[in-house]
């Protein structure tokens, strides 16, 4: 089972797929609200497309960015299922 990793820094967000076959960068986003929403929509699309992905994890380097990402998860996620754990950890 693999998972998606959101690496959130002041300079941007990187969405990676991590699994048994290694790590693959899916896409990069800016840290503005639109970029965070796009990152979450892309993560949802990847979760729906690949059933071997179990969850989305986040590595957030600044508390403010974590709060902004949590707000986006709570307000913008259309199918919170696998994203609920992410919101709880932020």
Average pLDDT, rounded to a whole number, is: 87
Unreliable residue stretches: none
User: What would the principal axes of the Cα set say about the shape?
Assistant: globular
Q: Largest beta sheet: what is the strand line-up?
A: 3-2-1-4
The first-to-last residue Cα distance is 22 Å
Q: Per DSSP, what share of the residues sits in E-state strands of 2 or more residues?
A: 35-45%
Class by SSE composition: alpha+beta
In total, how many beta strands? 4
Calculate Rg over CA atoms.
12 Å
Helix and strand arrangement:
Layout: E1 2-9, E2 12-19, E3 22-29, H1 33-49, E4 53-60, H2 63-76, H3 84-89
Parallel strand pairs: 1-4
Antiparallel strand pairs: 1-2, 2-3
Helix pairs in contact: 1-2
Can you walk me through this structure?
With 90 residues, this protein is of the alpha+beta class. It is built from three helices and four strands, in the order E-E-E-H-E-H-H. The chain has helices at 33-49, 63-76, 84-89, and strands at 2-9, 12-19, 22-29, 53-60. Strands 3-2-1-4 form a four-stranded mixed beta sheet. The model has no long low-confidence stretch (mean pLDDT 87).
């Amino acid at each position: 089972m693999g998972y998606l990793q959101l690496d959130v820094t002041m300079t941007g967000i990187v969405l990676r797929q991590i699994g048994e076959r290694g790590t693959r960068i899916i896409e990069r986003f800016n840290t503005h609200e639109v970029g965070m929403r796009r990152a979450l929509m892309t993560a949802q699309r990847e979760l729906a497309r690949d059933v071997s992905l179990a969850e989305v994890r986040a590595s957030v380097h600044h508390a403010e960015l974590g709060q902004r990402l949590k707000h986006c998860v709570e307000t913008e996620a259309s199918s919170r299922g696998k994203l609920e754990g992410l919101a709880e950890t932020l």
